């Protein structure tokens, strides 16, 4: 699965909607010597997204589009082109991208999902995992295709669900693993 990139740094855009803790971990990773990516653009569909502060802190270009209509996808594609972006990392991005958008980016879109896929695709993963009395949940980094949370899996990490876990405590435990998993998955896909 490893894609050789030679010594070329992969220009990456991270798409967010909320807190942006995965964005922060990806930015930190991108600054390491072994990282094959640089983060050159942050896109959010939510002007109130807390994660947008990392654009200022780390001096990264940011753009906000609501994605309420197709024009916003077109504007996004234009920005991606303008900034010569090769890879998109979705990180807590709560909008579903159209088939056309995904196709036009030729499979170079990754996503992180807070469950051990194929279990619990979609929203409210932690609530559902606890309700179903699962022993484990976890997180998954996968390629994005036109079906929700269904693209080829790159890496996964299991996280134990304890008897006293609630959705909040489980989300917290899984998020810690997400921050490690996303960089690892990128290293797995793109080797120098
Ligand atoms: C993460 O759990 C991610 O997997 C999910 O939404 C959360 C986003 O967290 N899709 P953050 O914005 O990266 O802090």
Short overview:
With 192 residues, the protein is of the alpha/beta class.
Strand order of the largest sheet: 4-3-2-5-6-7-8
Annotated CATH architecture of the largest domain: 3-Layer(aba) Sandwich
**Beta-strand content estimate:** 25-35%
What about the largest sheet? 7 strands, mixed
Helix vs. strand class: alpha/beta
Please indicate the count of domains.
Answer: 2
CATH superfamily of the largest domain: Formyl transferase, N-terminal domain
Number of strands: 9
Describe this structure in words.
With 192 residues, this protein is an alpha/beta fold. It folds into two domains: 98 residues, Rossmann fold (3-Layer(aba) Sandwich), CATH 3.40.50.170; 64 residues, no CATH class. It is built from six helices and nine strands. The strands form two sheets. A seven-stranded mixed β-sheet has the order 4-3-2-5-6-7-8, sandwiched between helices. Strands 1-9 form a two-stranded parallel ribbon. Helix 1 runs parallel beside helix 6. The chain is globular and about 50 Å long. The protein starts with a strand and ends with a strand. Bound molecules: 5-O-phosphono-beta-D-ribofuranosylamine. 5-O-phosphono-beta-D-ribofuranosylamine binds next to helix 1, strand 6 and helix 6. 5-O-phosphono-beta-D-ribofuranosylamine (GRF) binds next to helix 1, strand 6 and helix 6.
